[in-house]
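User: Hi! I have a protein structure encoded as tokens and I'd like to know what sequence might fold into it. I'm fairly new to this, so please keep things simple.
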């Protein structure tokens, strides 16, 4: 079996659990506990910034020569073509029930199916295998072929520490307690273990660990922010995998992602709730960084000529004290029909977390 597919699965599970599950807890805490002083603490998922912080960022806890098998899958796991479509449909048929990673999920992946004709795996895990997809579901529902129970655990080093990943802890519990389908990995933040780690994850910034990298050690760069607000890495051919919001990353890791809670219910469902009912105001925006490079403030001012837009914070005339963040969100939910969730920069595939938290958080 390919050990790198094994690591891919556990890294995907880890990022999903750490970001898409635990981040909701962090955001919820923010609504009642965040200190709203100017230039508040750097959020757990963001790299340090030089520019001013947005009010909405604070409210939402803002804002070398390795083989081909490590970068794009084992050579025995070569890209799958459409020629095996019928066989693929037969072996990977859609099952009813929510997948394991959704609340109440009961559907668990089986060990990876392989084509009877070519012997290659059917699941499309890497960008070149399915360029039109983010492959998040494929990776979360992928389990490598069964391996010996005596195989040693794969060690994943979180090189910049676990402080920003709270409440995650070192060890294997992250995988076993969350019932990740592949749980034979362990997490460490001890840099002294760098030389014998199976994978090293660099979150937000990269520091060369200084050891000679073993030929089968995987280095992963994990960024949630767009390039304007992250470190410029000046090294070539350093990272085996990328984990970012971009759809061409090896592991696509956005802040959140839309997925049908019940696959049997599609877009033709009847809307049974009028979200505009009893709301008396049109548009709101929380913002304190008035100099964003994409001129979002100027856009909002132009929009005000056509519809009522209430701008809260340093860039507007409305106030909602940062010390009462939860009340601000209640006000949005109660009074406003629309919320402006602007990115601070326009980058490919980047969607600000404010879209999910400020805009959709109470839906």
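Assistant: Happy to help. Inverse folding works backwards from shape to sequence: for each of the 363 positions I chose a residue that suits the local structure. Here it is:
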């Amino acid at each position: 079996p390919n050990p790198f597919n094994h690591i891919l699965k556990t890294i995907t599970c880890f990022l999903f659990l750490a970001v898409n599950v635990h981040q909701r807890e962090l955001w919820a805490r923010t609504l009642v506990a965040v200190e709203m002083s100017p230039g508040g603490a750097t959020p757990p998922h963001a790299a340090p910034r030089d520019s001013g912080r947005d009010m909405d960022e604070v409210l939402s806890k803002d804002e070398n020569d390795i083989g081909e098998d490590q970068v794009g899958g084992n050579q025995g796991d070569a890209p799958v073509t459409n020629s095996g479509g019928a066989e693929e449909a037969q072996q990977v048929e859609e099952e009813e029930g929510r997948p394991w990673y959704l609340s109440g999920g009961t559907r668990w992946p089986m060990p990876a199916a392989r084509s009877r004709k070519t012997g290659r795996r059917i699941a499309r895990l890497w960008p070149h295998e399915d360029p039109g997809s983010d492959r998040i579901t494929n990776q979360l529902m992928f389990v490598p072929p069964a391996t010996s129970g005596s195989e040693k655990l794969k060690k994943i080093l979180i090189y910049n520490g676990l402080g920003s990943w709270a409440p995650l802890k070192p060890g294997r519990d992250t995988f076993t307690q969350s019932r990740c389908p592949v749980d034979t990995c362990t997490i460490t933040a001890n840099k002294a273990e760098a030389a014998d780690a199976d994978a090293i994850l660099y979150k937000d910034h990269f520091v060369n660990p200084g050891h000679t990298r073993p030929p089968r050690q995987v280095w992963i760069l994990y960024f949630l922010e767009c390039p304007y607000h992250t470190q410029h890495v000046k090294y070539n051919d350093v990272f085996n995998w990328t984990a970012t919001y971009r759809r061409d990353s090896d592991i696509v890791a956005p802040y959140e992602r839309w997925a049908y809670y019940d696959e049997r219910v599609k877009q033709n469902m009847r809307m049974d709730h009028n979200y505009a009912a009893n709301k008396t105001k049109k548009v709101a925006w929380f913002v304190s960084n008035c100099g964003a490079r994409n001129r979002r403030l100027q856009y909002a001012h132009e929009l005000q000529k056509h519809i009522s837009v209430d701008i809260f914070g340093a860039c507007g005339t409305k106030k909602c004290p940062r010390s009462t963040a939860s009340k601000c969100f209640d006000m949005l939910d109660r009074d406003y029909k629309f919320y402006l969730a602007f990115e601070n920069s326009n980058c490919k595939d980047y969607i600000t977390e404010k879209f999910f938290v400020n805009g959709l958080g109470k839906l």
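A useful reference point when you look it over: The mean pLDDT is 75. Feel free to ask if any position seems puzzling.
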